[in-house]
Structures are given as C-alpha cells and as structure tokens.
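Re: that chain you flagged

S.,

Sorry for the slow reply, it's been a week of failed gels. I finally had a moment to sit down with the sequence you sent. For the record, here it is as I used it:
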Amino acid sequence: MGRLAAFAHRLGSPRWFFDITGPWLVVLSVIGIALVTVGSVWGLVFAPEDYQQGNSFRIIYVHVPTAHLAEALYLAMGAAGVVLLVWRMKIADMFIAVTAPVGMVITGVALLTGAIWGKPTWGAWWVWDARTTSVLVLFFLYVGLMALRQAIPAREQAGRAVAVLAVVGTVNVPIIKYSVDWWLTLHQPSSFSLTEPPTMPAEMWLPLLVNVVGFYCLVAAVVLAGLRNEILERESDTAWVRDWLARKLRGSEA
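Prediction finished late last night. Pasting the structure tokens below so you have them in one place:
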C-alpha cells in the first residue's frame, strides 16, 4: 500500500507524469489502431447478419464502444474532480480540461449512431425514452463543464467549480446504465454483462469486444496526448519545460 500511495503521489506531479507517459502514448496508439482495425473489419464484413435487424445491427460496432466510453470518461472526470477538491492536485484539473471535449465528441457520436440505428429499428431517428434522454443529458453535462470553465476567468476558481459539477454529474451515469431496467423503454438491454453470458453468438460479440477494447485504447491515447500538451502549456514558464523543448529542438535539427 505504501508503494502504491507513493506512486499515486508522484503521478500527481506534472513533470513526473510527463516523463513516464511518453512510451504509454505510443503503446496505446498502436494497440488501439490495431484492435479497432481488426474489430471493425471482423464485425462489418465477416460477422453474420442479425436474424431480426439484418445488416443494420452492424452499427453496434461503433455505437456500443462510444456509448461505453461516454459514461467511463465522465466517471473518470468525476474521480479527478474528487482528487482536485480533496488533494488539490493540479494535474487532476488538467485531466478534466482535456477530457471534457473528448467526452463531448464521443457522446455526440454515440447519440448520432444511436439515431442511425434507431431509424430502421424503431422507425424514428429519435425517441424520448429514458436511455436516449439520459445520454443527451450527459452530452449537455460535457458542454456545461466546458462552458463553466470558460465563464470563470480565474483558472483555480474555474477548476474547482468544474470539479464540483463533474462530481455531481456522475449521478447521471447509473441512470443511463439502469434506465432500461427501471423504466419502460424501447432501448435494448446492455450488450455486455459481467454476470450473464452474451445474448449474441460468439462470431458477433467477439469483434464487438475487440472494438470496445480498441476504442478505449485509442481514446486513452487521445486524452494522454492532450494531457501532455496541457502540461507543457501550463508549465511553460518552468525550467524543465524549457529544457525539454530545447532538447526537442536540437533533436529536430540534427
């Protein structure tokens, strides 16, 4: 536990975090691209048609990963909000600042692909059921986080206000997850469950699982790249950033 606590404390240092995450970015990017390529080709080309929905079900290979990520990213921001409010680690504020626009885009893609899937399945692009409405609320929470940060000039005050909203907004995530169980809804139950076997045949859910993992790796790489850039921007007046930039410049000229 002591080593874990020490690692977590060091991870809160922007300089140390920047130094150790360079290789992570490369690994996550390579794994993510490889898995998404394999999973997409497998699911879109080789998976069998659904016996009820035909080929329209194939949008699941984009919709489900983005829907999962939309919730996971917000939960991660909520956790970072707690870290910022309790331990005042500024890298937590950087993480929220970088993740909010990524989460907004991912949630937008989930809503768009859900609408495209809903048209042939439900006969309508949009229905105001519990799942779709709560995901729309999630989208506006991401937008609200970004707008709130822009509305408060003082960076430290803005960070605390955004952290509070990020923490409070996590209440919406279990509503999204359990909406299909709590209310009457057109939306189908979750495609994955840790307690029940998949309802789809293996040749359909295996490429979906590959794509989910691949999307997580790719989005993690995007967030990590943005976080590293945010660190450089906020720490631009420190000696270690100037030294790093000088080394990069000498390396590019060599």
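What I noticed first: The first helix runs from residue 2 to 11.

Talk soon,
D.
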